[in-house]
Backbone:
């Protein structure tokens, strides 16, 4: 953990026009990004989008078809995986079952030929750091899922890599532990002060932990930004649909005024939303999040919103804090609306009439290629 | 219900008990009794340790005994060295169909009887055989070369016969090694050699040990290959047993030899397990 006393300006990791083809399929299509030192960078995408391919190229297990990978400013394309200043936490952790915990953590140090006493000291420090002192003599299968997780990170971190790659390491854990490990991973990243590149298909993991998130689809980056950027200001319909849930309507734009848009949906409703680069007559799609729709028992309470609908409750999806209701509007479409837990709607049941509304700023509109 | 399960249990156990009892336990008890007696005159026997005394004092017997042990260990070691890369390739590098085809190729020699396979080697290696003729034709030799009836030919035969029994357990254990564990080995700075030594071999150890035990037993008890490829001078212990029982009709000494072989193989297997720090239970389970 030697902090850079003279911080140079080169980013820890930089990928330039990275392309990877397997036969006819392009798994990674011209991806460029930079990761500043000490940050937590996530690549978020559905399975099969090419995120694992990027990670394996950075680790050195795959060779890019074209493009460059630079670590601390220097290209690593000609560097073998075992010589790269990058370490990887594998999806199923890949701890060495034939070794004890201490031997697992010390493996990389032994490969570097460090003297025995130094290895013992460093392994002890690493165990201390992940909050599991004194477990060095145990076998891998004696540890719990969360402990293995921390050991896998420690095994990489003793080598003080410039970049730590994490390939969906929380996937195998149960929900409760996953929630806990999210917070812990973020804390470990801060403690080690190392650049983390994290890939996942779980948006909540990415949103909670990351400084920067790249949303990936079909081998390309759709958008790179902070969690807030992606959630509040998605650039593309894919991002709007992938991050969080959305109610969608497609239709034709009737009027535009700057960013404000009026669209008539295919079902005949008129809606107001915001979106850039659209003109009257364009096919478009509006995304509205369930949590930005306001629920009320009378129409007057919603007078401040410029989109108002009336409907009946068809289903209540109780899920604690994330409870929602399904509302069928006048034209027969079903919307998902978050159910406030303030007690106001505690008596709500199937078949009740409700009013819903949302502001035009809450609706994001994207043009559709007809 | 309980009575039924008990009957089922007895029925399932019966073939095993019969097999062990009739074919292993009873003959061995009889053999032990035969080996512990001495023929005084026609039809008159007396209990004695004379057979073992003879076996352990006669230099030819002892030499053959030692030589068989050493050669069997050597054959096991060579088989392991040859089979490991083959098994690694089948388990880790070959994918899909190729993997199945390669596995089948290892199996194919066992479709013909051991006798025919050994004749195959004789056709290749004998004085008028293929290799000898080829060498004369190319000009590497100016007269027929005899490659049969020596230790090398015998070793080739033993390794060849044992290959499958080493490859199968190795492939099984290597397949269970997650690819990402190997990748992690490289990722954390290991090179090919250290990954092999610290990760692959320790993981494959159960397969290595069980393969070695089977191959060692097969080599030690092999009769056909040493006799046919090694010729008259092969000095294999099983030949000695055969000679005492069939040629000399000296069942007493033959039985004593048989017991010595049993003790030897048990001792070496035990030693192998001790050396690798494993228990028989781990290896077989």
Residues:
């Amino acid at each position: 953990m030697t902090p850079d006393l003279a911080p140079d300006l080169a980013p820890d990791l930089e990928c330039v026009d990275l392309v990877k083809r397997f036969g006819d399929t392009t798994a990674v299509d011209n991806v460029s990004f930079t990761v500043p030192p000490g940050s937590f960078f996530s690549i978020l995408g559905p399975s099969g989008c090419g995120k694992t391919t990027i990670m394996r190229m950075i680790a050195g297990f795959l060779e890019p078809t074209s493009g460059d990978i630079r670590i601390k400013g220097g290209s690593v394309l000609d560097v073998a995986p075992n010589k790269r200043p990058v370490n990887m936490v594998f999806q199923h952790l890949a701890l060495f079952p034939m070794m004890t915990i201490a031997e697992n953590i010390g493996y990389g140090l032994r490969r570097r030929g460090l003297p025995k006493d130094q290895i013992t000291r460093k392994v002890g420090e690493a165990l201390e750091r992940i909050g599991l002192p004194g477990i060095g003599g145990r076998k891998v299968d004696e540890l719990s899922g969360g402990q293995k997780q921390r050991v896998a990170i420690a095994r990489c971190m003793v080598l003080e890599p410039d970049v730590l790659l994490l390939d969906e390491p929380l996937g195998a854990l149960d929900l409760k532990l996953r929630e806990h490990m999210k917070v812990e991973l973020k804390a470990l990243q801060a403690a080690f002060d190392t650049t983390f590149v994290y890939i996942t298909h779980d948006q909540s993991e990415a949103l909670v932990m990351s400084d920067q998130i790249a949303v990936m689809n079909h081998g390309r980056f759709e958008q790179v930004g902070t969690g807030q950027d992606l959630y509040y200001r998605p650039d593309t319909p894919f991002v709007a649909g992938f991050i969080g849930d959305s109610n969608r309507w497609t239709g034709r734009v009737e009027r535009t005024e700057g960013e404000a848009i009026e669209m008539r949906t295919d079902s005949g409703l008129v809606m107001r939303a915001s979106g850039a680069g659209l003109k009257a007559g364009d096919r478009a799609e509006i995304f509205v999040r369930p949590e930005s729709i306001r629920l009320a028992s009378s129409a007057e309470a919603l007078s401040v919103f410029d989109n108002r609908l009336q409907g009946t409750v068809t289903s209540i999806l109780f899920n604690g804090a994330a409870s929602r209701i399904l509302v069928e509007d006048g034209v027969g479409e079903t919307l998902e609306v978050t159910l406030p837990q303030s007690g106001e709607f505690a008596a709500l049941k199937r078949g009740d009439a409700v009013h819903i509304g949302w502001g035009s700023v809450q609706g994001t509109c994207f043009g559709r290629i007809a | 219900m309980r009575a039924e399960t008990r009957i089922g249990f007895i029925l399932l156990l019966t073939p095993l008990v019969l097999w062990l009892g009739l074919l292993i336990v009873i003959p061995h008890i009889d053999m032990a009794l035969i080996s512990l007696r001495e023929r005084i005159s026609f039809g008159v026997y007396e209990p004695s340790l004379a057979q073992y005394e003879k076996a352990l004092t006669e230099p030819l017997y002892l030499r053959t005994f030692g030589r068989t042990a050493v050669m069997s260990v050597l054959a096991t070691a060579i088989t392991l060295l040859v089979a490991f890369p083959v098994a690694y390739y089948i388990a880790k590098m070959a994918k899909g169909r190729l993997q199945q085809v390669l596995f089948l190729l290892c199996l194919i020699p066992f479709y013909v009887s051991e006798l025919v396979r050994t004749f195959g080697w004789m056709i290749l290696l004998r004085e008028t055989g293929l290799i000898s003729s080829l060498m004369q034709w190319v000009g590497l030799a100016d007269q027929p070369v005899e490659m049969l009836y020596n230790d090398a030919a015998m070793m080739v035969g033993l390794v060849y016969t044992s290959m499958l029994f080493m490859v199968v357990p190795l492939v099984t254990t290597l397949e269970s090694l997650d690819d990402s564990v190997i990748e992690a080995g490289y990722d954390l700075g290991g090179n090919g050699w250290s990954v092999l030594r610290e990760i692959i071999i320790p993981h494959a150890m159960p397969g290595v040990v069980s393969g070695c035990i089977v191959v060692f037993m097969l080599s030690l008890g092999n009769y056909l290959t040493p006799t046919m490829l090694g010729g008259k001078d092969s000095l294999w212990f099983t030949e000695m047993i055969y000679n005492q029982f069939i040629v000399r009709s000296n069942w007493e000494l033959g039985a004593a030899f048989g017991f010595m072989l049993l003790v030897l193989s048990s001792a070496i297997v035990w030693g192998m397990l001790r050396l690798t720090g494993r228990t028989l239970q781990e290896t077989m389970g």
Observations:
- Chain B has a mean pLDDT of 88.
- The two ends of chain B are 30 Å apart (CA to CA).
